[in-house]
Amino acid sequence: MITTVGRERPAVEVAAVIREHGKEFLAKYGALLTVAQRKALRDLAACRTAALGGHVEQCLDCGHERIAYHSCRNRHCPKCQALARARWLDQQAEHLLPVEYHHVVFTLPAALGDLARANPAVVYDLLMRSAAATLRQVAANPQRLGASVGVLMVLHTWGQNLHHHPHVHCVVTGGGLSCDPTGKVDASPRWLACRPGFLLPVRVLSRVVRGKFLAGRRAAFDQGRLLLPGALHQLAEPDGRAVWSKTLYEHDWVVYSKRPFGGPAQVLRYLARYTHRVAISNARLVELRDGRVTFRYKDYADGRREKTMTLGAHEFLRRFVQHVLPKSFVKIRHYGVLANCRRQARLAECRRLLLVANLAAALPGVETAPWTPTAPPCCPHCGGTRLVYRALGPADPTPTAVRPDSS
Fold this sequence. Notes:
13 strands, Replication Protein E1, Chain: A, four-stranded mixed β-sheet, 2 domains, 33% helix
């Protein structure tokens, strides 16, 4: 008897859409896709199939065999995020402080959508850097907080209906180390807490991030780092850019400050949902039939009611691949007190000032569970523990539907 190892799969998967309609999709849009987007399609189609190989587990007592296929480990794969998320969360638990945390969201205006799609690496990087610089600058202002706060940022580029909607989720400490107006931490810092339930004024954040982003965009134009295909070509002329910039300055940008988290444990639960999320999970897919994909989404304009939407398979894949990030783009970043370069020293100083001698004692909600020995693997058929393994080579490097030469 032979079985396949793995959790029960949803009725419909993104991978199934790619396998059934990937060849036609590439024939239609292949010339417009980036290397990263084509790779994501190949990886997702092959994930946990014979195409990537795996291993066979055999019981020496009863002869029962189980097959486990390899995962693709692509960061855009709905099936490969659980383990990466768990490992990452273990690391983040060590960085939490016993303070109030706030959730701030910066959204890129729709008018910049075409520029972002044509230059994702430049525009997304500029959005994250501008948002981080805005939080640090406004927090360092003595009239606001006068402190260097800790910021963890996660980039999302999608809305519930898979449309292009770039925005940055920021988890910000409700206070920080005293600093000068430039953000340099004092030689003998104090811990300065924000007002309970209030971090920074969103109107100020909105106008500061707008100025920083548009200044960075001008520099990118001047340095020739932005591609201007199609309708964007009019921005190559100074007059065209000037008119466009004026319209972007006329409106406040959307910055949303949500209610603060109740504590570090709630922060971890939030991070578990947001950090390793992909554009759409398999659990939201309802049906794949006659070349059309039906999925669930929340309509925020209608009181967050859950609805269903049906798209042609090609349109579904087109919307999905536009959220594939450029190769090596870092979508989770840390700034301020949480910046990688001096994180441990800064956190130690914060805990000392907060009179916290032991992080685990201060954060009971995120304590590590007591270690218990893991039971040895056993045969699901007879319960025997005499198991041997043999490797399975890839049956086919990539599914035919999404091979590089299929476009």
